[in-house]
Amino acid sequence: MDFKKLFRKDEKAVSPVIGVILMVAITVILAAAIGSSVFSKGTAESAPQANLNIKAAGINTTTGDIKFEHLGGSDVNFDKNITKVMATVGSNNNSETIDASSLGIFGVGDVKKIPIGGTHTITTGQTVNIKVIDIQTNQMICDKNVRF
Fold first, then answer.
1. Are residues 131 and 69 in the same domain?
2. Which helix H or strand E contains 80, and what residues bound it?
3. Which of 21, 67, 72, 115 is 20 to 30 Å from 5 at the Cα level?
4. What is the CATH number of the domain that holds 69?
């Protein structure tokens, strides 16, 4: 065994270690840059934050009227392409979409009535669940149970 060949002075062990560290650093920086560009979609839109009071306003033969009152928060646009109002009568899971476009842009202090129960008969003592949903963000604005 030739010890002179094993321990030569012209070989340096530091160079491969620094090379590996630089390769790992470059990989981490590239992963961070690609990850930040992929996962940065910006801020998510939120539904209007409004405090709505929904009450029963009477029964006409088989339909009922509900009264919407805006108590505070953002204006709600009840255009049928922007906001959806769903009604579930009783304990069944059959919900119907209510045309609430007559409410228009509903601001603080506004009070208006709309009819419900087009496909369902509403009777005294019956509970109707009303959900107001923002279509663009698919978020709930209001969820109330109304008893007639």
1. yes
2. none
3. 21
4. 2.60.40.10
Task: State the residue range of the domain holding 22.
Answer: 3-39
CB neighbour list of residue 108: distance below 8 Å, 6 or more residues apart? 70, 71, 72, 73, 75
Q: Does 83 map to a domain? A: yes
DSSP string, 99-136: --GGG-EE-TT-EEEEEE-SSS---TT-EEEEEEEETT
Decide if 45 is inside a domain: no
Q: Residue 66 half-sphere exposure, CB side, CA atoms within 13 Å?
A: 29
User: Which residues on adjacent β-strands are paired with residue 112?
Assistant: 68
In a domain, 96, yes or no: yes
Give the pLDDT of the chain (148 residues) as one tens digit per residue. Answer: 566 666 666 656 667 778 889 999 999 999 999 888 888 766 666 777 888 888 887 777 767 788 888 888 888 888 878 888 888 876 666 777 777 777 788 888 888 888 876 666 777 788 888 888 888 888 888 888 888 7
Same domain membership, residue 79 and residue 13: no
The H or E element spanning position 67 is strand 63-73
